[in-house]
Amino acid sequence: MTRSCSAVGCSTRDTLQSREHGYSFHQFPSDTILRSKWIKAVNRMDPRSKKIWIPGPCAILCSKHFLESDFESYGLRRMLKKEAVPSVSLYKVLKSRYEEIQDCRDEVTPNK
Ligand SMILES: [Zn+2]
């Protein structure tokens, strides 16, 4: 099964082709604090529970969501820094792009 990026609105798939295009794929960190920072950054809602989405064991993010400065180079290999938190092309970007369409839809905020 091909894995794809877990970020909202991103459909980059973990394939040989995307890797050839220079994308890399990163699993959610096992460190609890860092992991929760990633979850907050992804800011995704679980459609069933209407709660914040928790990444499963196979959840990955593609390199589009990290800054160049989040990576360290070891020769030809590019590694994500230990403390790196995704910050690019996440939900906020998507929201501003679709703001006109989604303006009157408020699915993300749970009703109280
Ligand atoms: Zn992505």
Automatic annotation (TrEMBL):
GO terms for biological process: endothelial cell proliferation. One of its GO terms (molecular function) is sequence-specific DNA binding. InterPro entries: THAP1/10, THAP_Znf, THAP_Znf_sf. Keywords: Cell cycle, Coiled coil, DNA-binding, Metal-binding, Nucleus, Transcription, Transcription regulation, Zinc, Zinc-finger. One of its GO terms (cellular component) is nucleoplasm. Residues 1-89 form the THAP-type domain. Pfam families: THAP. It is found in: Nucleus, Nucleoplasm. Gene3D superfamilies: THAP domain (6.20.210.20). DNA-binding transcription regulator that regulates endothelial cell proliferation and G1/S cell-cycle progression. Specifically binds the 5'-[AT]NTNN[GT]GGCA[AGT]-3' core DNA sequence and acts by modulating expression of pRB-E2F cell-cycle target genes. Belongs to the THAP1 family. This is THAP domain-containing protein 1.
